[in-house]
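Figure 6 in text form: structure in, sequence out.
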């Protein structure tokens, strides 16, 4: 039953990860209403500023800039109350100063249309690919007429900045990392189950030199681990000092008289967190690992 439950829990975990990734990618690549509306409002503010500077270049500080219209997706129209005249170089520079400096867009197309016949009086395109950038001769001043200016943004910049893009890359990587870690840990647990001892509130892994208590790992030195392994094999029985010394220190270098007591003391401190376990000194004989009220499963 334990194996079946583990498999079912693992499948649920995998399905959850796949669901999260699916939802995340759908959300990432779908336009968000707030982002669309935010860009539109921001574009209108910037283009109103463009219109204002054109009027000021005509020494006109009183006539109105009519409401900026969004005539198509990411395409806007600037209209004026009165006729005006300007040099095309000026509109190129004004747009550059306002659109590009606030990172509204790096690629955009501008058309100056005559109100009377809707003919294009001047147009140009700015693109990060220099081969696609087209700025015709702009030295001739456009005569005083009624004009509208249409600006088409070719790469709408939303609130999803380059930093957000990095986040979109990192989150799936983290989720996939958790996925594989869960799978790896599950495999580890299967191996560890064969070589562990449940000792009161602890789980002892002799081959890995560690104790586990409520998912918290307690590292053991090699000598501490060997001592505990001997004591666990003789639960609630006195193990003579000579036996402990022989099994732990035999063929392992020089034994110092106080070494056993030192390591027993270190081991006792690590086990004292569980009140059902007691490492007792049997004076003049040896040590006893006592486990009360709980069984020990080997």
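Output sequence:
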């Amino acid at each position: 039953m334990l194996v079946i439950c583990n498999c079912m829990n693992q499948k649920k975990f995998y399905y959850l990860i796949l669901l999260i990734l699916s939802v995340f990618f759908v959300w990432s690549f779908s336009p968000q209403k707030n982002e669309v509306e935010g860009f539109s409002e921001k574009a209108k503010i910037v283009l109103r500023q463009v219109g204002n500077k054109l009027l000021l270049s005509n020494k006109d500080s009183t006539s109105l800039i009519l409401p900026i219209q969004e005539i198509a997706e990411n395409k806007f129209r600037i209209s004026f109350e009165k006729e005006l005249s300007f040099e095309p170089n000026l509109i190129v520079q004004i747009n550059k100063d306002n659109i590009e400096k606030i990172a509204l867009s790096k690629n955009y197309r501008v058309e100056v249309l005559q109100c009377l016949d809707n003919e294009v009086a001047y147009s140009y395109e700015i693109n990060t690919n220099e081969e696609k950038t087209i700025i015709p001769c702009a030295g001739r001043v456009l005569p005083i007429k009624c004009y509208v200016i249409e600006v088409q943004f070719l790469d709408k910049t939303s609130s999803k900045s380059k930093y957000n893009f990095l986040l979109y890359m990192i989150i799936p990587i983290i989720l996939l990392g958790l996925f594989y870690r869960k799978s790896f840990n599950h495999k580890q647990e299967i191996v560890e189950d064969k070589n562990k001892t449940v000792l009161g509130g602890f789980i002892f892994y002799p081959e890995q030199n560690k104790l586990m208590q409520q998912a918290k790992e307690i590292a053991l030195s090699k000598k501490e681990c060997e001592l505990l392994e001997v004591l666990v094999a003789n639960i609630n029985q006195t193990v003579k000092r000579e036996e402990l010394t022989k099994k732990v220190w035999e063929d392992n270098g020089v034994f110092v008289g106080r070494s056993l007591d030192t390591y027993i003391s270190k081991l006792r401190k690590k086990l004292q967190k569980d009140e059902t376990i007691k490492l007792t000194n049997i004076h003049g004989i040896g040590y006893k690992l006592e486990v009360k009220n709980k069984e020990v499963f080997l």
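Caption detail: Helices lie at 2-28, 33-57, 88-100, 162-192, 222-232, 241-249, 259-271.
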